[in-house]
Structures are given as C-alpha cells and as structure tokens.
Automatic annotation (TrEMBL):
This is GNAT family N-acetyltransferase. PROSITE patterns: GNAT. One of its GO terms (molecular function) is acyltransferase activity, transferring groups other than amino-acyl groups. Residues 116-250 form the N-acetyltransferase domain.
Amino acid sequence: MNHPTSLWKANISNQTALWQRMGCEALSIKGEGWLQSLSWPYKLWPESGKTALTIRDLVEAQPHLHARTRVPFWSQNEVTLPWQQQMPPVSSEQILMYQGLQDQPQTPRQQNPKGIRLNSVQTPSQLYAWWQICEQAFAYEIDIQVIQHLARQADLLLLLAEKDNEAVGTAILFTTGQVAGLHQLGVAQAAQGQGVARAMMHQLLAIAGECRAQWMTLQASSKGLGLYEQLGFSRQGVVRNYSPKNTELA
C-alpha cells in the first residue's frame, strides 16, 4: 500500500476506528449511515468516510446534538472544496501526515539521550497521570472512563512518557492493517520546550516498527507540524472540524 490515495484513506480509517473504540452509536441521517461518539471525543462522522450532507443538513436532522459535537470533513492535499466555502467557521483543523517505517534507521529504543522512557499504562496511578497530562496538553476535558476502556484494549498501546520517575508525556499507538496511527501525543506543561516530544517520537517510530507496521500516520496541529516535518513526515491532506452548534439556520 504505497499509493497516496490508499495511504490517505488508511489514515482516516485508523482515526475513525479509534473513535469507534472510544464508544459510539450508529445513526441514520437522511438515508446515510453515521456514527456518533457517546462522550469524548464528541465526533459525528459518516460511516463510509464520505457524505453528500452539509452541516445545515445535520443540524436539521439532529437538533439535539451535544454542544461539543464536532463533524470532521476530510480533503486530500489540503484542497478546500467549493461547497466547504459555504460552511460555518472551522472549529479546529489538523494536517494528515504519514511516513514509511521501512526507511527508518534501526535505532535501539534504549538509546535515548533525553532520558525519556515510554511505558504502557498498567496501573491506576499511571492512567490518572496520563489523563491529567493529556487534558493539560490539549486544553480540553477528556472522559477518564474512555481512557480506562482504551487501556484494556489488547491491540492498542496507551503510552506514558517518564523522565526521572516523573510522568511527562502521553501517546496512543493504534495499529490497523499496515498502519500505526499516532494519537494524543502530548507533553506536560512543565516539560515543554525540553525536547520531550522529539525524544518520544524517536521511540514511537521504533515501537511502530516492532509492531510490524509499514507506515505511521497522524493528524498534526499547527503546533506540532514543524516537528513532524523535521522528522520526515509528509503532508497528505487536511481534516477540518465543524461545530453544528455554531451553525445558524435561516
């Protein structure tokens, strides 16, 4: 799987598969199949990844959406489609990125000059630290019960970064097919600006290779975009998230 369109779809599929693991319900909206988060991350997305509906259609069909609901619309190669220009203001936006793991240098995980260690979350105290840091790093509320549920998934890695026995970072690594999707990479405020995210990324790439994935995918915010590009990740599209509650119907 090395065709750009296939990799783009694989990135989206990995992301939506993780949302499903977090808990969702199936809906039929104007004849289309949709999935809706039961709590955080408060997503409402088309089951096929494609839709002919607009935000206005969704508001009319689902008037009682949660105030924090966000609807993602994906565009390959960061193109803004004509109908998207008529959308309400974007709530948030991330760049879809990927990198081939087969070209990564085989660096032993233990070689880490920053002294950062990535460990799977195993204990309640580790899970609580993960939850606190991730909320702090992303500046939004996270349902801790969702994190508890993810920690029990055998094919998903909930990872806590530690330095000098202090928790300093979070990450989720979720493998689907040949893709290892990276999610919720966050650094505690007190540890930011110290190269923690870069040190974590080197280990995450090694772990993904150990999981026999061929590609790593992620969705980068503007804050993390520079680091990912420095590490060799390529852009492949954009996901724009819209809030139906910000849509005014005439």
